[in-house]
Amino acid sequence: MIFFISQAFMLFSQDNDPVLFTVGDDEIRLSEFKYIYEKNNSDEADYSKASIEEYLDLYKKFKLKVRRAREIGLDTVQSLQDELAGYRKQLAKSYLKDKEIADKLVEEVMERMQSDIEVEHIFVAAEEKSADAQKKAAKNKIDNIFSKLMENNGEGFSEMAKTLSEDKLSAPKAGKLGYYTSPLPDGFYNFENAMYEMEHGEISEPVRSKMGWHIVRTTSHRAARGEMEIAHILVRKSGRTRTQARLLIDSVYGLLEEGRNFENMAAKFSEDLKSKSNGGYVGYFKINQYEKNFEDMAFSLSEDGAYSQAVETDLGFHIIKRISKRDTSDKERLRKRIQAKINNNDRFRIAEQKMIDDVKREAGFTENMTALQTLIDSLDQQFYSYKWQIPELDKDLVLYELAGEKTLLSDFTAYCKSNVRERLKFSKSVDLEESCTSIYNQYINEKILAYEEAHLEEKYPDFRALMREYREGILLFEITKQEVWDKASQDTAGLRKFFASTDKKYMWPERVAVYKYTVQGDEVAAISVYSYAQKKEHDRIVEKYGKHDQVGFQFQELTLEKSSDLIKEMKLEKFGVSNLKNKPAPPSFLAFKDMVPPQEKTLEEARGYVIADYQDYLEEKWVKSLAKSYPVKIKKDVLNSIIKDN
């Protein structure tokens, strides 16, 4: 039955991914072509007839070469297999982190950012650096509170928050924290999960943060307010009566209503010393950052440039100006901003562990904790030393099973033996069971991640396509090197024959013949030669200075292209000279000799261009022969189905 279901699924998949063309008996499916077409053409992948046909021609040639590489067994060459394995190892680690963790976390935040959640909590402090006894006591306390809540079907949450919560700010308010939105700061991912995953009024089980334990209850949600860029004018209540402060802020508001400049008013009247010199500029702020009155008033401003009436906070009275609202319409830009915020924080570690737990479940992971306990019972203090020796235990004891494959306890003991640093990092005061279990958990996580990496092709079509690219790219490089590049550079006779057949294709353009004069003597001698060259011909210059030992006169003939920087400032006519250059020593300059008419390059002069063209010639000839050996047949109906301008 399973066989028939599998076959039916394969047929269904193939029907939805038809063959686009064949190379010999190799089938290239539409999904493969579309993937590579879109990847290599990026924004220009418009599926126009011209674009598709141009790229299809390139891809046919590519597939012909890859087919030939396989035909001669290049895919079995060990060095090439090792190269591919190296690429895969690098790709798998980054792909696993990016696709299974990072991308999912970013998508999660993007979705959660659409809503603000109003939340309450009961809190028991237990920072990560707290002593074990304190952590244990905190856990017991939060568990007891949760048990009482469950006994009463959640009734009494507010009263318990007032009397038992250790959050001094929220406890008097029955645990009310206000609205929060994703992403919460590092160390509060479990809290955030509880916020977004519960129904309103539902009470969470105790969740851990870097500050301690929380029992979370959500009460409502609203469309996310986002972030706003603001400026403000503050009149403080301290040092004056509330009425006096109110009169002063109302006077400032009146001046703004008369058309006075907000920035000038902030500079003159605001008592926020940090912002008044900058026109009252505060910058971007988000929800729950300032008092509720301030936040509500700011987010009530509907237009950039609008300012509020006076709003009161504990500090005093404010007039708030909206500068801008953070734009989240550019999803790619938003994605990058989120990535920067959450990169390397606790949600990566938690999400990775969740992924590991999911893989365990999907792959039917089972473990034999009795076998692990057998090892733990055999340990002594030598375990914390590099001298530790593996104890003699039953070598056939199964430690765990993953996807039907059994791993023995002896594999783990070998891991412990080789990972000396892991054993040494534990203090001898740490319980042996705790330290061994910690190393075991690390070992299991590594094995699960390795298993997942090994099965990425089955789970992710994109990774499968990426590995196909690398695999075929390696084959293409090697076969092209053998059939084209090496031949073009090593076949001297063939290269000369090809050059002879090109009929003056490689020509020098019109060039400039010059004399380069060098003077080894002092600067006065150099100036003398330079001045003489501007009015006398070359023979006269040599006659006058050539045998003058004190001058140290030398010359050489050069042929330069007209675009050369060496002659850009000289006139290309009789007695034309370049500037006299004293650095680097000795002094030198160029003098015009003649124009050199266009002429054919020698093979040596054109060698780089000739080799490149010879490679193209050999490749074209090779591709034609490959097409005869492996006929290419295109499915016109499939091709036409993706062309958009038919």
Keywords for this entry:
alpha+beta; 646 residues; Chitinase A, domain 3; disordered N terminus; 23 helices; 4-stranded antiparallel β-sheet
Descriptive overview:
The protein is α+β, with helices and mostly antiparallel strands and 646 residues long. It folds into five domains: 2-71, no CATH class; 116-223, Roll (Chitinase A, domain 3), CATH 3.10.50; 227-314, Chitinase A, domain 3 (Roll), CATH 3.10.50; 346-456, no CATH class; 507-600, Chitinase A, domain 3 (Roll). Helices cover 50% and strands 17% of the residues. The protein contains 23 helices and 19 strands. The strands form six sheets. Strands 4-3-6-5 form a four-stranded antiparallel beta sheet. Helix 4 (78-112) runs antiparallel to helix 18, helix 12 packs across helix 16 (432-454) and helix 18 packs across helix 22 (607-629). The longest helix is centred in the N-terminal third of the chain and has 35 residues, at 78-112. The relative contact order is 0.09.
Write a brief caption for the model.
By secondary structure, the protein is of the alpha+beta class.
Which structural category do the helix and sheet elements fall into?
alpha+beta
Morphology: extended
**Overall pLDDT score:** 91
Strand arrangement across the biggest beta sheet: 4-3-6-5
Proportion of residues in β-strands = 15-25%
Number of helices: 23
Number of DSSP-assigned strands? 19
Show unreliable segments: 1-13
End-to-end distance, in Å?
44 Å
Number of separate structural domains: 5
Largest sheet: 4 strands, antiparallel
**What radius of gyration results from the CA coordinates?**
39 Å
Helix content: 40-55%
